[in-house]
Structure formats: structure tokens, C-alpha cells
Amino acid sequence: MEFLKKIFCFPFTKIYSKNENLFKENNKNEVNKINIVNTNDEQNNSDNETDLDPYKQAILNQEYGLCPECNQPNTYENWCKECYSKKFQQDFGNWTSGNERIDMFIQESQLNARNNFELLEWIPYNRLRNIQFLAQGGFSTVYKAIWLDGWIQHWDYEKQDWKRYVYERDGQEYKDANNPKIKNPLQINEKYGYSVVLKSLNDSSNINNDFLNEWKLHLQCQHEARSNITSLIPLLGITQDPDTLNYMIVMNEAYDGSLRNNLKIKNYNPNDKFLNLWWLSTQLESLHKLNLVHGDFHNGNILYDDYKYPVISDLGLCRPVSQHNVKNDVYGVLPYIAPEVLR
Description:
Blueprint: H1 2-7, H2 27-38, H3 40-43, H4 54-60, H5 81-90, H6 100-112, E1 121-122, E2 128-136, E3 140-147, E4 151-156, E5 161-165, E6 167-168, H7 171-176, E7 192-201, H8 209-227, E8 235-240, E9 247-252, H9 259-267, H10 270-289, E10 292-293, E11 302-304, E12 310-312, E13 319-320
Parallel strand pairs: 1-8
Antiparallel strand pairs: 2-3, 3-7, 4-5, 6-7, 7-9, 8-9, 10-13, 11-12
Helix pairs in contact: 2-4, 5-6, 6-8, 8-10
């Protein structure tokens, strides 16, 4: 891992760059943040500050600037954890999922979010448009949709409201709205939104702690990944299908599909292969630092929102390394299961 870090001193300027303006304002600082990762070993012997992870070191160095409200170091670009957690808390009474466990889960994420990658929201189903079936899995059904409100970017002090990532919708999406198989069709007066994926979990209307376990682990791993200056696929929030009453996780749409879809392209580009290896190894390292194993790691669960930068997804089988499969059940995709498991 450290060997790879020393080789790849690239200025990774974006994690999600399919949308041209996304994270544009962060580009200058991303070079500095990656350099902190690559030179971490050399700095460890210089002073006590190097005991901090690269993310905390960046905060300490005020690389994200100062909060205009409290004048303390921001915890991300235009993001102050202390001030923003208070804003979220003041809004707790204005929304509810109808389920106490989910409310507490979302609220906890909002109180602890150091950046928008670690944040969840309750997303009313009626704020989603052009909900369209994508795929069926063993435990869930996947749809794509347009979220009218969009992903929180930062607090707009002038407007005293959240600034969000939304983009003008194209003409094809209004044509798609006429398809009878699409739910909540996009209206002609709805000009902006954010593309998302919905993962509907089978039989999740009666929520329990097992249901939330995957998403709690995902947020824990996301927190550790951000500390390592990388990211898993971001979770944006939770919603509920009013017809089935199943809960749905709302995630970023991976525009460029999975590694499986891109294997032929990657196979003939050695630079891409090494870059992908570095990027994925930093994400896996984040899981392993928490003594977790992914449990279902294969090229179908490696996604691309940008062609160059892969992100790990689907932590449904993630578990502590010391936790064995007490039921002796076999899960996973057959070509990627170890032969001894199938004996």
C-alpha cells in the first residue's frame, strides 16, 4: 500500500467529475491533500502532528479555510461540522420518516458529518421523479430517478438556506416521463434536479437493526475513507416507497457503470490499471483499518461516476473480520467465490 502511495503522486483533483461543476472549487486543495498522503511516511519522524490522519492534518493546516460563522477551521470546503450540526439539529422537528430508528440514524449522521459525503437526509418520495427500474438482485431492487432538491453542497449565508447540487434536465428525460412504466413522471415546469439511484430493500417495511447495519457500516467506512483522502460511493439519504412501504437507500448515480462494463477498455491501458489499483487499495485500506472485510468484492461492485476514479459499493455482506458465517450460508457471485467455499 505505501509502495503504491509513493509511486502515484498524482494531483487527484476530483472524485466525482461527470457533472462538470461538481467540486470545481475544490480542485486547488485536492493536490495538497494527496501530497499529504504521499509524504506521510517521511513526515512521521518530524513532529507529533503527523500522528493525525491526512484529513485531520488538512483541517489543522486550515486547508479548507475558516468558518465565517465561528472563525474555526472548516472540516471541508465551505463546511463547518460544529456550525452545520446546529443547523441540522434546529431542523429536526420539521421532518420525520415515520420510523424512530431511521430518524435517529439520519440525525446522528447529520450531527457528525464533517463533509457532505458523510451526510444523510430523509428524502420524501414525492420529491423524486422519473423512477425507472434498473435491476433486480437477491435482496433488493434498483431504480434510477431524479431528485428535485439535490445533494447538499454547503450553507448559503446570503440566502440562509442550503446550496445544493442540481443540474438542468435534458429533453430526453421529459420524453421518458411519458413512459407508462415510469413512476412520478418529470413535469415540464421542473427544470432542475440531481440524478440518483434508489436501492429498494426487500421486505424492509418492518425495519430492524439488521436492516440498518449495512448503512451504518457504510457511513463508518466512508468516514475512514475520507480520513484517507478517498471515498466510497456516497449515500445521500433514505426514502420510502408508498406502495410497497419498503425503504429505499438513495445514492449517487454511477454514470459510467461498473468495472465489469469497462474491463476491455481498462485492459489495454496500463496507466488506468495502476491508477485504479491505487484508488481501490486506499478504499479497501479504510475498511481494513476498521477490522472489516467487504465480503462481496468483485468488478460488479466497483463503480465509476468518472471513467478514471472507481468507488467501492454494496457493503451488504460487510462484517468484522472476526465474525464468522454462523449459518454456513454461501453468498456472492459464483465466478468470484473461492472454490473451497463451494465444497
